[in-house]
């Protein structure tokens, strides 16, 4: 724990329950985007934004193979029933945003086709530890960042990450769930974990030695005392 850098931020208490725009050097925000499916999706060479269609888009239209970033957030999907849901997307997709879709179910195996997926944003849904599609993500060993904030998730079951080993996972966002107590040992299987965000309602935290962790965000928790290790 000596390596932890505790970040205390001064942001207001407004909940950040929308996926934050990705900022990467190769995604130029000024790139021209054109409608690529009936004014429901807007594409550039590398990106497809099919977000915010309020239930009017329930499938992913055929996208060109060069698209490696797909934003399918805010579409009231509720369920991803079939494993071919992503059949119209390149298997080389890097970033997938499924935030705020009211998802309660994702068919196991839905992510299996992706061989390059590094970042999955799946917060703001109604998934629980049984329905979170991490079993499928394990077959995507490339995953480096996972955002499951704002999902009403309770305390992380002790075996959860043991069942779903993600060897390259460096950043895990679990803020704004309902995690009131947490034993940091649950993160032991995540050997590359570098940053962990837990802005939550934590009242009780059991520490654990996580050698790769260098950034722990614990803002807005109810912790009175940070435990010594
Ligand atoms: C996806 O689109 C939504 C709404 O259109 C936006 O708020 C969000 O930031 C986008 N996600 C990313 C990762 O850019
Ligand atoms: C979500 O979609 C609705 C309907 O299209 C839109 O009014 C709202 O602004 C969207 N929210 C975000 C954060 O983009
Ligand atoms: C959804 O479709 C209806 C009917 O075509 C349309 O009036 C509405 O504006 C659409 N909503 C969005 C967010 O695209
Ligand atoms: C693929 O996209 C086409 C239209 O572009 C659509 O008709 C078809 O249903 C889509 N397939 C899936 C599996 O979503
Ligand atoms: C998880 O969610 C599913 C679908 O909403 C539900 O059927 C199941 O009972 C939930 N499991 C738990 C442990 O809450």
TrEMBL record:
<dbReference type="InterPro" id="IPR050541">
    <property type="entry name" value="LRR_TM_domain-containing"/>
</dbReference>
<dbReference type="InterPro" id="IPR003591">
    <property type="entry name" value="Leu-rich_rpt_typical-subtyp"/>
</dbReference>
<feature type="signal peptide">
    <location>
        <begin position="1"/>
        <end position="19"/>
    </location>
</feature>
<protein>
    <submittedName>
        <fullName>Uncharacterized protein</fullName>
    </submittedName>
</protein>
<dbReference type="InterPro" id="IPR032675">
    <property type="entry name" value="LRR_dom_sf"/>
</dbReference>
<keyword id="KW-0732">Signal</keyword>
<dbReference type="Pfam" id="PF00560">
    <property type="entry name" value="LRR_1"/>
</dbReference>
<dbReference type="InterPro" id="IPR001611">
    <property type="entry name" value="Leu-rich_rpt"/>
</dbReference>
<keyword id="KW-0433">Leucine-rich repeat</keyword>
<dbReference type="GO" id="GO:0005886">
    <property type="term" value="C:plasma membrane"/>
</dbReference>
<keyword id="KW-0677">Repeat</keyword>
């Amino acid at each position: 724990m000596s390596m932890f850098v505790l970040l205390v931020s001064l942001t207001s208490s407004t909940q950040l329950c929308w996926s934050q725009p990705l900022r990467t050097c190769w995604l130029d925000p000024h790139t021209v985007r054109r409608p690529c499916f009936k004014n429901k999706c807007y594409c550039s060479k590398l990106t497809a934004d099919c977000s915010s269609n309020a239930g009017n888009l329930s499938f992913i239209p055929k996208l060109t193979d060069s698209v490696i970033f797909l934003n399918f957030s805010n579409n009231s999907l509720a369920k991803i029933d079939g494993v071919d849901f992503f059949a119209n997307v390149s298997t080389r997709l890097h970033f997938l945003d499924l935030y705020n879709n009211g998802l309660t179910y994702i068919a196991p195996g839905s992510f299996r086709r992706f061989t390059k997926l590094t970042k999955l944003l799946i917060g703001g849904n109604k998934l629980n530890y049984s329905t979170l599609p991490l079993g499928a993500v394990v077959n995507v060993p490339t995953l480096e960042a996972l955002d499951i904030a704002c999902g009403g998730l309770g305390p992380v079951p002790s075996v959860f990450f043991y069942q779903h080993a993600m060897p390259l996972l460096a950043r895990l966002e679990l803020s704004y769930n309902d995690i009131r107590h947490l034993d940091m040992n649950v993160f032991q299987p995540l050997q590359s974990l570098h940053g962990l965000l837990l802005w939550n309602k934590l009242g009780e935290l059991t520490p654990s030695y996580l050698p790769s962790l260098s950034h722990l965000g614990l803002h807005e928790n109810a912790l009175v005392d940070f435990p010594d290790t």
